[in-house]
Design goal:
Blueprint: H1 12-25, H2 32-43, E1 48-49, H3 50-56, H4 64-76, E2 80-84, E3 90-94, E4 102-106, E5 112-115, H5 121-129, E6 140-143, H6 146-151
Parallel strand pairs: 4-6
Antiparallel strand pairs: 1-3, 2-3, 4-5
Length: about 150
């Protein structure tokens, strides 16, 4: 994406500090809920729903509505990336900025794996060559994992 965050293989601490820096650079306050959300997303590889993030946070930091509000604000400045798996729930992951990737989601167990290759980048380049600005894309792939196939 923008290339302003750390690399995927950087430590959770480094990613956490980069995220805080990005919040500051964009005049966003560093609140306890934002710190807690970023701690979850830089420590564990999502993507997670707002509810899953809320459950992973220390109890009593904030309510679920605040989690949604924080995620929305952080998505606007590309600290987090939103994923839509077509099941009515948005999921969020830390945006490393360097390593754009997609997911394959099992239709049965809803497990998620990362696909490290993005074929759609060429399509984005084509769109930019056609004169489009602010070009982005979302792409999620669905199938049935080996474990669920074996269980049938």
């Amino acid at each position: 994406m923008d290339g302003h965050m750390g690399h995927e293989h950087e430590s959770p601490e480094t990613n956490f500090e980069s995220a805080l820096r990005l919040l500051r650079d964009n005049q966003h306050r560093i609140t306890a809920p934002r710190r807690a959300i970023l701690s979850v997303l830089t420590r564990e590889h999502g993507p997670f729903t707002a509810d899953e993030i809320h459950h992973r946070m220390e109890e009593g930091v904030c309510d679920l509505v605040t989690v949604y509000r924080c995620l929305s604000a952080m998505e606007e400045i590309a600290v987090v990336r939103r994923c839509d798996f077509g099941d009515g729930s948005y999921r969020y992951e830390f945006n490393t900025g360097e390593h754009h990737h997609h997911h394959i989601i099992c239709r049965v167990c809803h497990g998620v794996e990362t696909l490290d290759l993005c074929m759609a980048d060429a399509l984005e380049r084509m769109a930019r060559q056609m004169g489009y600005a602010n070009v982005t894309h979302t792409l999620e792939i669905f199938g049935v994992c080996k474990k669920c196939q074996a269980a049938k």
